[in-house]
Amino acid sequence: MSGVRAAAPQLAGLEPYDPKYLPAEAFLSANENPTDVDAALRAEIVREIRKTALNRYPDPLANDLRDLIAEANGLDRDQVLVGNGGDELLFDLALAWGGPGRTFLNLPPTFSVYEANARLTNTAVAEVPRRADFSIDEEAVLARVAAGDIDFAIVTSPNNPTGERAPEDFVVRLLEATDALVMVDEAYFEFSRRTMRPYLESHENLIILRTFSKAFSLAGVRVGYVMGSPGVIRELVKVRQPYSVDALSQAVARVVFANRASFEPGIAAIIEERARLTDALRTLPGVTPFPSDANYVLFRMDAADEAWAHLYERGILVRDFSHAPGLEGCLRATVGTPDQNDALVAGLRDFVMGRC
Ligand code: PMP
């Protein structure tokens, strides 16, 4: 037979996720850590990988890694689940808590993957847009959950791409106002140094997402985890792919997590550079940076798409959100090394001065 039946209807009009990765000298578009894992730790990773059987399936639940994460967070193994990057766990969440007849509450502008996952799983999306300064419209969120139809919500803290963290008292009020499962996406929490972890015992409807991709320099390896109540974790285990975290990724993540203290100076340096970059952006005429608790800074300016192209010609890749709903005129720059940040500011200065 020639031809092929159409794919599932929910795919119509859906664009695949595109990180818009292009060759560049300075990658400031994907919120990665500018510093790779250092040589000493790499040597330890290699030793661990040498011991890893390649002919055997990995531990399906990555229990050794789970135990390390659980212990560090004062939890039991059954309160932690490891995934192939946070992305996989976000999809698992939509599979387990979404679906036809179910509703997801989103607070845009935020990480676009949430909404895509809802659409893929035929989950209805309810939205409470952020205010003009990107703060959460807290009363509107609480009013929306009061309707009683929300099955799960995601609060991103710090939010991507806007940068600010969610106020802790608001998240507590939300957890108490609804029995919906509330995920707090803490992919960038190491840069805000704030976590909802203390509320896990008291709030069964809280689940926290973390990743190894940012503070721990492992975006290339694909490991993330969630922490939640055993009942919630059990449901997620039902939908996950059995061997999604391969043996090599488990080995790398174990070594890195056991040595996580060694990443602390790098994190502190990024936090310092974030302040320096934000201040420098603020000095540029017509450029308005938004305060950030993460490892990136969102800024708004005229002709942002032309500025993006100008930077790219200079080898600097930032993320262009200038035509994204709610983010008009905005670019997002990952905090890079001091040299990269200087080059970014110089490139932007050159652009805005050229337009004066
Ligand atoms: N949540 C947020 C807010 C993110 O920005 C990202 C990465 N872009 C993720 C989750 C997923 O990260 P990863 O799959 O690399 O763990």
Automatic annotation (TrEMBL):
Q: In which pathway does it act?
A: Amino-acid biosynthesis; L-histidine biosynthesis; L-histidine from 5-phospho-alpha-D-ribose 1-diphosphate: step 7/9
Q: How does it assemble?
A: Homodimer.
| SUPFAM superfamilies xref list | PLP-dependent transferases
Q: Which reaction does it catalyse?
A: L-histidinol phosphate + 2-oxoglutarate = 3-(imidazol-4-yl)-2-oxopropyl phosphate + L-glutamate
A molecular-function term among this protein's GO annotations: histidinol-phosphate transaminase activity
Keyword Lipid biosynthesis found: no
Print the keywords alphabetically.
Answer: Amino-acid biosynthesis, Aminotransferase, Histidine biosynthesis, Pyridoxal phosphate, Transferase
Protein origin, superkingdom: Bacteria
Name of the protein in its database record:
Histidinol-phosphate aminotransferase
The entry sums up its family as follows: Belongs to the class-II pyridoxal-phosphate-dependent aminotransferase family. Histidinol-phosphate aminotransferase subfamily.
Whichever gene encodes this chain, its name is hisC
